[in-house]
Amino acid sequence: MEIQEKGLPRVAYFCMEYGLDNDFKTYAGGLGILAGDYLKGAHDHGFPIVGIGLLWKQGYTDQRIGEDGRPYDSYYNNRYEFLKDTGVTVGVTIRHREVRCKVWKVDCFGNAPLYLLDTNLPENEDSWITGQLYGWFGEERVAQEMVLGIGGVRALRALGIPIDVYHFNEGHAVFAGLELIREKMQCGVSFEQAVNECRQQIVFTTHTPVLQGNEWHYMERLMYMGANNGLSMEEMISIGNSPFNMTIAALRLSRFSNAVAQLHCETANRMWAHVDRRSPIIGITNAIHVPTWVDEAMLQAASRNGDLWSEHQRNKEDLIRFIKERNGVALDPEVLLIGFSRRAAPYKRSDLIFTDEQLISGLLNERRIQLVFSGKAHPLDDYGKEIVANLVRISKRYPSSVVFLENYDMVIGRMLTRGSDVWLNNPRRPMEASGTSGMKAAMNGVLNLSTLDGWWPEACQHGINGWQIGDGFVSDNTHHQDEHDVRSLYHVLLDQVIPTYYQNHDRWVEMMKNSIQSTREQFNVRRMLEEYYEKLYTE
């Protein structure tokens, strides 16, 4: 596609979180960082896109490790001097009370314009709505999603920004569809006609490949909160069933939907095959904003036959200094360093490598490998917090070779995906939707060691640009799947990764070069945006 082509559809991108800068606390993890990269790519390449989100007063949790080795959550009020006052305030009726929402503009991070709604105003009894990202309680979450969706559409109208396509990034924005329906019904059309007309304007990206992880609400709560936005209960049920499923509603309200990797496309179509009147789900694989995440010196060295190893070692030593400052641990730049950074969730199997701890302890004690972990658990996820606590316990058993970096953020993500030698990723296939951290690592010459899940099946050339764990094995018995995958992990680690690192330096460097060259275009945000326009935005 010629991006300078005139007449491209104007897109409003709705998302609960945006990762634009480490110090701008409006993101929790991968979803927000993807949204931030999307807006940066839109700016770089001239696509007519604006973002709609919420201005979080406290954002997501700061998650520290206490003296007992367990994670605890802290929240702080943030103030930002770079916000631009649009002079626009819109109202959303929540629980029979009007909530005023001030609209701020952010465009200082090399991003397309982002408009953020803020309820933290003295005139609001409900100023708390935009307090903490992903509110803890059901009513709080619904209120946040009403501000994002209903308030977001009203903000676009008040700002005078014409929109052709409304893109919902996850189901959180579904209430924007109800506002669009309300607008059309006010012009005298029927509910059915309004829905059909709205479907021509809405597209949807689904991320969560687990049915239970897709958000739903009891219909009584939505009606009480006013989320129905004037629609009857019967009309609401026709959109999202009862209980009201946000993903099902988005699938029914959109003309096209997309999954975020080709394997995820297969998974999503199986998951939602039972939903009638849903939009087709196509695959558009996620991508990253290269200038944000990739060391330009590595790209240059790979393309010009420069000293790739020296550039990588510089990044590795930067990471080691960073770890020393944060944790007081002095890692060895000559020892293979394996990085792992994920949200603490059971299917991501953060501690899979320690299944046979006797085997791994030998490698650690003999200084053959060193391991660096990071990641947060959701504040209400006790199981996820136990995963974090277990990683901390392991790091204390191996104080010179295993590190857990607390309070994961964009800085830690950037350091790890540049400075590790190997990027370990071992989710249970097919539960990883995409996994963009692996793309960042690959473009920095960090070799992926991953199960064939998410984006990796599209990129992996085993033994050439990284390694695969297993052969795509899937089982309903998680114990059997874990046993299968860990056997493969140990086999590849012991027979291929470690010998290549220590005994075949030239081949390792060649694999680094292959990793960069095989991913830099395919997983660049420009490709993703062009696919969105070709396959999703343009009829």
What does this structure look like?
There is one protein chain. The protein is an alpha/beta fold and about 550 residues long. It has 2 domains: about 10-50 and about 135-285 and about 525-535, Rossmann fold; about 290-525, Glycogen Phosphorylase B (Rossmann fold, 3-Layer(aba) Sandwich). The chain is built from 19 helices and 19 strands. It has helices spanning about 30-45, 140-160, 175-185, 190-200, 220-225, 235-240, 245-255, 260-270, 290-295, 295-305, 310-325, 355-365, 380-395, 410-420, 435-445, 455-460, 480-505, 505-520, 525-535, and strands at about 10-15, 50-55, 60-65, 70-75, 85-95, 95-105, 115-120, 165-170, 200-205, 215, 245, 255-260, 280-285, 335-340, 370-375, 400-405, 420-425, 445-450, 465-470. The strands form 4 sheets. A 9-stranded mixed sheet has the order 5-6-7-2-1-8-9-12-13, with helices on both faces. A 6-stranded parallel sheet has the order 16-15-14-17-18-19, with helices on both faces. Helix 16 (about 455-460) links the parallel strand 18 and strand 19. Helix 3 (about 175-185) crosses helix 4 (about 190-200). The longest helix is centred in the C-terminal third of the chain and has 26 residues, at about 480-505. The protein is globular and about 75 Å long. It starts with 10 loop residues before the first strand and ends with a helix. Mean pLDDT is about 95; it is low at about 1-5.
